[in-house]
Amino acid sequence: MTSNKQFVGYIGTYTKEGSKGIYKFTLDTEAQTMSQVELAATLDNPTYVTISQDNQYLYAVVKDGDLGGAAVYSINGEANTLEFVNKQLLEGASPCHISVDSNNSQIVTANYHKGTIELYASSKGGALNPASSIAEHHGSGPNAARQEKPHAHYSGFTPDEKYIVAIDLGIDKLITYAVKDGALSEVHALSVKPGSGPRHLAFHPNGKYAYIMTELSSEVIALAYNAEDGSFTELQYISTIPADFTENNQGSAIQLSADGRFVYAANRGHNSIAIFSVNQDSGELTFVERTHTEGNWPRDFRIDPTGAFLVASNEESGNLVLFARNEQTGTLQLLQSDVRVPKPVCVAFLHTV
Asked: 7 and 33 in contact (C-beta within 8 Å)?
């Protein structure tokens, strides 16, 4: 964050079609514009990035030849420049998702191509230690083209950070892990609808509910979460696309508003963000509306720290889009769609601290 009116965001990309790595931009909430797009770090395929709660570090997935892993940068000064700290690499394809806990001590990645979850610890100065544990998923799903083997797509921490939760698109599973002595240990698994292809998960701020976006069936799955044992129970399936939409659509990102009143889910193909209101007593969702993302293939989006704006990244059309968010109705109003970033994937803002 640079001021109470200007917020710095970072964009993870696929490094092709001119992209060179991680980009930085500024959101001016007073002017209601995004600007100052610039290259922040040169890195190969940093498709997903995340920022520590104290704004000290940015973590990114990274490709390095035939290796893949995680990289960490320190975030420095008023300009919020990125300074490379180190990276840890493993044989094979790079991960697709990365998360960090609240005290920057544990970093976890999900690897789509290998169907694995990797756990790293950080050392003094924020450097990553070699992976301490690798959990390998097993199985397949009914979609022969996309579920021929495990495809881990998300890994993150439960609200109390007691557990790590992994989502696997290839085997239609949500798997809960405990960490003991630096090792991942499975404590619970939930199988969701066969062929749905779960992709990403977001927790409600009350910690009682969680929501999965499915890539293959274009649905949001509402879940009840038991913080005692790390288990989940299905509450509801609700479609993110119109019933009469028959073209290709692949679900992507999912986020909740900070007050827990609304769920947002992105559709690649239909090129929209679906908005749902949350019943605070049951956790179930009610459809509000869909908003076009003013571009092609919305891979990710993020609500800004004030809660009044949403920034979406259209991967195939190479543009960022700024919406004003009505905090009472949850609806989105287009403000800007001409901010160019090549092959944008992930959006991450510095936190308010």
From this structure: no
CA distances, 352 to each of 241, 254, 261, 347 (Å): 33, 21, 20, 16
DSSP class of residue 190?
Answer: E
CA–CA gap between residue 174 and residue 160 (Å, rounded): 18
* Residues 212-235: tens digit of each pLDDT: 999 999 999 999 999 999 999 999
Ranges in the chain, pLDDT < 70:
1-3
pLDDT of residue 3: 59
User: Between vectors from CA 242 to CA 336 and to CA 198, what angle results, nearest 5°?
Assistant: 85
In angstroms, the CA 311 to CA 324 distance is 9
User: 90 has which bridge partners?
Assistant: 68
pLDDT at 94: 98
Question: Degrees (nearest 5) of the Cα angle 62, 66, 68?
Answer: 25
